[in-house]
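Sample pair:
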Amino acid sequence: MTAVGKLVRFSLTTVEASRLGAFYERSLGFRLVREERLSGAPFERLFGVAGGARRLRLALGEEIVELLEFASAGRPYPVDAASSDVLFQHLAIVVEDMGAAYRRLGAVAGWTEITNGGPQSLPATSGGVAAFKFRDPEGHPLELLGFPAGSAPPRWRARGGAEPCLGIDHSAISVTDTARSVAFYEKLGLTVAARSLNRGPEQAKLDGLISPVVEVTALTPRPATPHVELLRYRDVARDASAPANNDVAATRIVFEAAAQSADGFEEMPRAILDPDGHRLLIVAPSDS
């Protein structure tokens, strides 16, 4: 398996890239950095979808989200999807001021809440962070994430400024077997950095679930942020269906291939699936 280096961007499927991009700009402070058209046989083989796609690249701080609008549209995001479903995958956006970020989001129409009762302050056993989960106008899950005063990692303290949203900390994915997923991502070159067991009324409100118990495992590439978090919900029924690349629920984590990879860069970009069907792309450094 190809070893990976840094996590270079996140890729979302969209029905209408311009409209969704405008939402991200207005509500979260993203900025448009590039717009292009992708097409041709290599693209179709990589994504398994006939026809090309329009791509918008948006930046928040140093992190990149790309929106892919395929010419051949797939299925919309399932309206009954829960935080514990296997297809669940959210982007966690670090905020300097949760109140200001939440008010800015509230001033823009089109999103729907996952979290009940506004931002939740989790206990120290669950990281002590403030968090709020919601869905963008097409259904993609997102999270506002605020660290306790004085405890934000140096990376985020250095980014303080006029905007309440600073960047993307991680992508969290729901998994069915933590050990199996850890083994998969370790083979790619990621390292377990932290583990916690999240439960209690705050977690229930955050996830919009009844009494969830969640194993959280953070896996870091080099550098450590952005990173991947595994969420294993105990004793909860989950939908195991995996979306196609042109389905709105498809989210791709894009890694740069490590320089020491034995495979070299001849077959890049490369698409792979993790054990639960979450999509990954590995690209050469020149494509990051």
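The chain has six helices and 16 strands.
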